[in-house]
């Protein structure tokens, strides 16, 4: 009887985990248009407090398993797409969506301050506009990245976290992979997010997101 009870309890726990994942997906809401009618670069909710599973980018042979100490990021450099920017901290809006950099400053990137800092174990998230204010944005060419491309994050403690891209995805905003982006990971990882796909003139919003997954390879 005792073993049967244990198996039943384990099944209930597994079901609860699945339900949490479903709820996290249902909690997704689309971001509103920017001040100039341009879409915000992403449409995600906050990082789930209880992720359903440890998910992230595919394994990378050169990944650094141990994380770096907590230190706020200062700037980002993505050589392949000539994207360089300082990083401003981003929190949550009143509707629980993630803040984005000012659309009037489309070349400004920002980092999600409620998650791990770049180099710490877990997924660090950096957001940038694809365009705005009738100009190209900092992540206008983000979709050009491919596995192996490098991303450098300078940190306030004087160190630099070096990441290598593991995959690039284009996903519909109403199917945003919240858990894969914000869910816990066992190694230091990075996510770069912007808008992409077709621009819907009726809603003044891009229909998709471009998401770059990367892992720490040097510090």
Automatic annotation (TrEMBL):
<dbReference type="InterPro" id="IPR042001">
    <property type="entry name" value="Sortase_F"/>
</dbReference>
<dbReference type="InterPro" id="IPR023365">
    <property type="entry name" value="Sortase_dom-sf"/>
</dbReference>
<feature type="region of interest" description="Disordered">
    <location>
        <begin position="34"/>
        <end position="72"/>
    </location>
</feature>
<keyword id="KW-0378">Hydrolase</keyword>
<protein>
    <submittedName>
        <fullName>Class F sortase</fullName>
    </submittedName>
</protein>
<dbReference type="Pfam" id="PF04203">
    <property type="entry name" value="Sortase"/>
</dbReference>
<feature type="compositionally biased region" description="Polar residues">
    <location>
        <begin position="43"/>
        <end position="53"/>
    </location>
</feature>
<dbReference type="InterPro" id="IPR005754">
    <property type="entry name" value="Sortase"/>
</dbReference>
<dbReference type="GO" id="GO:0016787">
    <property type="term" value="F:hydrolase activity"/>
</dbReference>
């Amino acid at each position: 009887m005792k073993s049967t009870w244990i198996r039943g309890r384990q099944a209930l726990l597994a079901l609860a985990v699945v339900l949490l994942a479903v709820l996290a997906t249902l909690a997704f809401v689309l971001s509103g248009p920017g001040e100039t009618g341009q879409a915000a670069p992403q449409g995600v909710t906050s990082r789930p407090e209880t992720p359903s599973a440890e998910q992230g980018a595919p394994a990378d042979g050169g990944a650094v398993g141990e994380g770096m100490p907590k230190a706020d990021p200062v700037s980002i450099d993505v050589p392949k797409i000539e994207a360089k920017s300082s990083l401003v901290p981003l929190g949550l809006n009143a509707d629980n969506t993630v803040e984005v950099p000012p659309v009037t400053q489309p070349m400004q990137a920002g980092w999600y301050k409620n998650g791990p800092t770049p180099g710490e174990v877990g997924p660090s998230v950096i957001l940038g506009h694809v365009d705005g204010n009738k100009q190209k944005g900092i992540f206008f060419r983000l979709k050009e990245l491919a596995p192996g491309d490098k991303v450098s994050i300078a940190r306030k403690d004087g160190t630099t976290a070096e990441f290598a891209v593991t995959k690039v995805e284009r996903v519909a905003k109403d199917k945003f992979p919240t858990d894969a982006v914000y869910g816990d990971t066992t190694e230091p990882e990075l996510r770069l997010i912007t808008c992409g796909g077709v621009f819907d003139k009726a809603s003044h919003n891009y229909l998709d997101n471009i998401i770059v997954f990367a892992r720490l390879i040097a510090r």
